[in-house]
Every structure is written in structure tokens, then in C-alpha cells.
Design a protein that fits this description.
One of its GO terms (cellular component) is nucleolus. This protein is mostly helical. It is built from 4 helices and no strands. It has one domain.
């Protein structure tokens, strides 16, 4: 299956009607959570109970930021 970004402009896929579907999809939420947790592992962020200030520079729904906050970071 061809990648969506090669089929049409981005506004076709992430317009006002598609964004809510993306942010409420349990599959997408699980994937974003796993990716964010893996990023914490790769960054070797210590799990010492001290919140770290992390910059999430994504341009998305905030799903990754939610996972970071669930792990006690800001």
C-alpha cells in the first residue's frame, strides 16, 4: 500500500474531520505511547523520581506529551 503522503496533500488526511479520529483511536494512542516510552529509553532518562523538563517539538495532538507527563516529566 502506498504511503498517504505520496497520494495527496496533507490537508486531505489531517483535516478537521480526521484529527478527532486520530486522537481518539486506541490503536494510535497505543502506538504513540510506545514510541514515547522508547524515546525515554533511548534518551536514558533516569527514573529517579525527579521530573525532567523535556521538549516535545512535535506538531501533533499532544499524545506523546501525555505519555511523558504520565511518566512524571514536564
Amino acid at each position: 500500500m502506498p504511503r498517504p503522503e505520496f497520494q495527496a496533500p496533507p490537508d486531505v488526511f489531517y483535516n478537521e474531520s480526521e484529527v478527532p479520529k486520530y486522537t481518539t483511536s486506541s490503536r494510535i494512542i497505543e502506538i504513540q505511547s510506545r514510541i514515547s516510552e522508547r524515546a525515554l529509553e533511548l534518551l536514558v532518562v533516569p527514573n529517579d523520581g525527579v521530573p525532567k523538563l523535556l521538549l516535545d517539538i512535535g506538531c501533533g495532538s499532544g499524545l506523546s506529551g501525555e505519555t511523558l507527563m504520565e511518566h512524571g516529566h514536564h
